[in-house]
Amino acid sequence: MGMTLRIAGIQEDSIVDGPGFRLAVFTQGCPHHCPGCHNPQTHPFDGGEFIDTDELLEKLSRNRLAKGITFSGGEPFCQPEPLAHLARQVHSIGKDVVCFTGFTLEQLQKMDDPHVHELLGLVDILIDGPYVEAERDLTLKFRGSANQRVIDLPETLKRGGICLWHDPYDDI
User: Fold this and answer.
1) Among positive and negative, which fits the CA dihedral 76, 80, 82, 86?
2) pLDDT tens, position by position, 141-151
3) How far apart are CA 88 and CA 50, in angstroms?
4) How far apart are CA 101 and CA 29, in angstroms?
5) What is the C-alpha separation between 26 and 159, in angstroms, rounded?
6) In terms of C-beta density within 10 A (0-12 exposed, 13-18 middle, 19 or more buried), how is residue 150 classed?
7) Tens of pLDDT, residues 70-91
8) Measured between alpha carbons, how far is 111 from 99 in angstroms, rounded to an integer?
9) Which among 127, 131, 155 is positioned nearest to 145, based on CA atoms?
10) Cα–Cα distance between 171 and 2 in angstroms, integer?
11) pLDDT at 7 over 90
């Protein structure tokens, strides 16, 4: 049984929202309001539309080329319970989870919400930190400003210190 998620939209076959072909899910609602935000239409918490997480899983599972799913926004950690539910299902079909957030990992880890911690435990790559227009850099992979980190979250949680994600294709 799926859960309801409020989204601004989806992008199938995205190649800019994480490694490989991805189903990008743009959640609706964001408290950050970063100046210069790429998706300001996702800010209102009462906008967008509702979708069942089972429908998103079905879209992902039908796409044989998709490496995984990306949660973007909006702010995904404003809806951690349905996203954790979906992330668990995504892993069960052998695909990975990338998540963008305007929070830092350290801020998320201090939150008193078990669903936030559950979602953190299911994310493979976390792109964290607010978009900072003064640090905008179009050459960065998967992020818009230099303050944002691309974190290998399972390794970070295992080691207890930040481990940045390394793209194996950078070595070719």
Assistant:
1) positive
2) 899 999 999 99
3) 20
4) 12
5) 30
6) buried
7) 999 999 999 999 999 999 999 9
8) 17
9) 131
10) 39
11) yes
Query: Is residue 78 a contact partner of residue 47, using CB atoms and an 8 Å limit?
Result: no
Supply the pTM of this predicted model.
0.95
Contact 61, 92 (CB under 8 A): no
Q: What is the DSSP letter of 164?
A: B
For the chain, the straight-line distance linking the first and the last C-alpha, in angstroms and rounded, comes to 42
Answer whether 55's CB lies under 8 Å from 39's CB: no
pLDDT digits (tens, 9 = 90+) for 25-66: 999 999 999 998 989 999 999 999 999 999 999 999 999 999
Q: Which two tokens stand for residue 170?
A: 């950078």
2 upstream amide cis, omega within 30 of 0? no
Token duo for residue 157: 């949680």
Q: Where are the alpha helices (DSSP H) in 111-147?
A: 114-120
- Facing residues of 21 across strands? 66
Q: Which pair of tokens denotes residue 11?
A: 């992008």
Q: At what angle do helices 80-92 and 53-62 cross, to 10 degrees?
A: 30
Report the distance separating Cα 155 and Cα 21, nearest Å: 23
**Residue in the structure block whose two tokens are 């209102």:** 44
